Amino acid sequence: MRLLFYDTKSYDREAFDRAAGAFPDIEIDYLKTDLGPRTAPLAEGFDGVCAFVNSDIGKDTLQILSHRKVGLVLLRCAGFNNVDLKTAQELGIQVMRVPGYSPEAVAEHAMALALACNRRLYKAYNKVRENDFSLNGLMGFTFYQKTAGIIGTGKIGAAMVRICKGFGMKVLAYDPYPCESLRELAEYVSLDHLLAGSDLISLHCPLSDAARHMINRDAIRKMKDGVILVNTSRGALVKTQDLIEGILRHKFAGVGLDVYEEETPNVFEDRSDEILETSVTARLLSFPNVMITSHQGFFTREALAAIAQTTLENASAYARGEECAGRVQGLIPRLCQR
Ligand code: NAI
């Protein structure tokens, strides 16, 4: 089968070329451009396309793909909020993802952000490089015996629960589908209880209509003063304007974001003054207690290898007409299976 790979970075190509040796029936063509309505026609003659978190896989793109007889969208990521699943289903296009390639990679990055914000590591690093060894502005708080609130306890959230437990923290969790095996590590509570009782709040639930802007003015008001908020999940879980208001009211000891609302389209690709003046992300970057990374939670050697392997297994299962765990359609809210 022939796959057209969109938005290729050199590290993607290396990982996929390495994994492809075990899949002789799959031929991959790599494109630097991302998938969207303007680039979808390039998939003419291919059986499937391989896309990523910020690809535009809405109705228009899917209709163009279907018109060109492309039957498969392979997402080389876990989240699938950028796909119009209803249209894909209607057009008979199968959508596959990589449900859990390295949950620990993302959870470790979430904790790295929490620690960097808490101990002001970015500030400490710059101060010392400028020969300023004073401790002014570097005071943090000890995580040991504090409370972590984990929102969403799927694969990544569960890894974060274990990490927080390792720090000697008490862990509160909120998930509409609690994970039975986590109950001895975390206490499941209501969202309001978690917001009010946590010193560190970390978001690990998918972006859905219900979860969009779950961290808004009302939720922020319920949080403890001096809380640390970390989001490695999806930018739109947080209403950025309300977050900015909370930061200005000194609600947060620190905010660590690996994802942000303006990732799609990426405001920083268009650096015009006009865009940057109105960009809420640029505003966030102006605060000394906010740390933003560019959606790198997944970015470890192990995770890239696992993504390539599972994506090609998904393609192979599709070619053989077999069911596989990566299939997005048919996903139903489920109890945790770990
Ligand atoms: P998962 O599907 O294993 O777990 C998600 C959990 O969230 C489930 O237990 C589900 O019941 C729960 N959930 C759903 N709606 C909720 C809500 N409104 N409130 C609280 N919990 C809710 O997903 P996984 O693998 O743990 O990934 C979580 C998210 O992390 C992905 O959806 C994706 O957005 C993000 N992600 C970020 C990466 C990065 O590089 N920063 C890489 C991979 C995933």
Mean pLDDT: 93
Beta-strand segment tally: 12
| Low-confidence runs | 332-338
Spatial sequence of strands, sheet with the most strands: 8-7-6-9-10-11-12
Shape: globular
Spatial extent as radius of gyration = 21 Å
Helix content: 25-40%
- Give a short account of the largest sheet: 7 strands, parallel
Query: What structural category characterises the helix and strand content?
Result: alpha/beta
The percentage of residues in β strands lies in 5-15%
Small molecules held by this entry = 1,4-dihydronicotinamide adenine dinucleotide
Helix/strand order: EHEEHEHEHHEHEEHEHEHEHHEH
Distance between the termini: 33 Å
Number of helices: 12
Explained architecture:
With 338 residues, the chain is an alpha/beta fold. The chain has helices spanning 10-20, 59-67, 85-91, 103-118, 121-129, 155-166, 191-197, 217-222, 240-248, 273-278, 280-285, 301-319, and strands spanning 2-5, 27-30, 48-51, 72-75, 94-96, 147-151, 170-174, 187-188, 200-203, 227-231, 252-257, 290-292. The strands form 2 sheets. It has a 7-stranded parallel β-sheet with strand order 8-7-6-9-10-11-12, sandwiched between helices. Helix 6 links the parallel strand 6 and strand 7. Helix 1 packs across helix 12 (301-319) and helix 4 (103-118) crosses helix 6 (155-166). The structure holds 1,4-dihydronicotinamide adenine dinucleotide. Residues 78-79, 100, 103, 106, 151-157, 174-177, 204-208, 210-211, 232-234, 258-259, 295, 297-298, 336 line the site of 1,4-dihydronicotinamide adenine dinucleotide. 1,4-dihydronicotinamide adenine dinucleotide (NAI) is lined by residues 78-79, 100, 103, 106, 151-157, 174-177, 204-208, 210-211, 232-234, 258-259, 295, 297-298, 336.
